[in-house]
Amino acid sequence: MEPRQSRGSVRRGLRASCLLASLLVASLAGAAPKPGEALPELSSQDLEGKTHRSQEWRGRRTLLVVLTDKDGGEEMRRWFDTAATQVPDSVHRASVLTFKVPFFVSADSARERAKKKVPEAFWTDTWLDKSGDVGKSLGLASSREPYAIALDERGQVLAVVHGNADSPEARALLEKLSGP
């Protein structure tokens, strides 16, 4: 009888651990910045190796597209292509590539790979975070779908969308960037 109780205890423990892990993942995924909140202070290097801080985005509306998985580049590009036709030129466009790159891949090597996929005109507005810390600071889960964040002139979040650029939520986000 003892072994059955022991197995049952193990099963209950495993179930409790799985439940706790899924709640933690759900809370992290849902911890993205909310409308009305200030974007946390962020810092990273662009594709040319120059260090930037998120304070640079203050003073103008900004579309920030964050990629948390190395395979999401095409959808990120669609966000910027869509924005080019739907928001005024005065809206700043920035991107952050934030994912764990293996330790044996240097930051310079990762930047060179990214440069091959990002047009040169956007290298200074594309940050590369090979440790994934920026994504963690923003409370974003790893996903092939990008996160788009609309910021007002004060660095306050207007809207956040995790998904495709052609969704109704994406259109609403882009409208907020165009509005007063």
What report would you give on this structure?
The protein has 180 residues and is of the alpha/beta class. It folds into 2 domains: 1-30; 32-178, Glutaredoxin, CATH 3.40.30.10. Helix content is 38%, strand content 19%. It is built from 5 helices and 7 strands, in the order H-E-E-E-H-E-H-E-H-E-E-H. Strands 2-1-5-4-3-6-7 form a 7-stranded mixed sheet. The longest helix has 28 residues, at 2-29. It is globular and about 45 Å long. It starts with a helix and ends with a helix. The model is unreliable at 9-29 (pLDDT under 50).
Q: Can you tell me the residue ranges where pLDDT is under 50 for at least 5 consecutive residues?
A: 9-29
Mean pLDDT: 86
Helix content: 25-40%
Strand content: 15-25%
**How many extended strands?**
7
Identify the overall geometry: globular
The tally of helices reads 5
Largest sheet entry: 7 strands, mixed
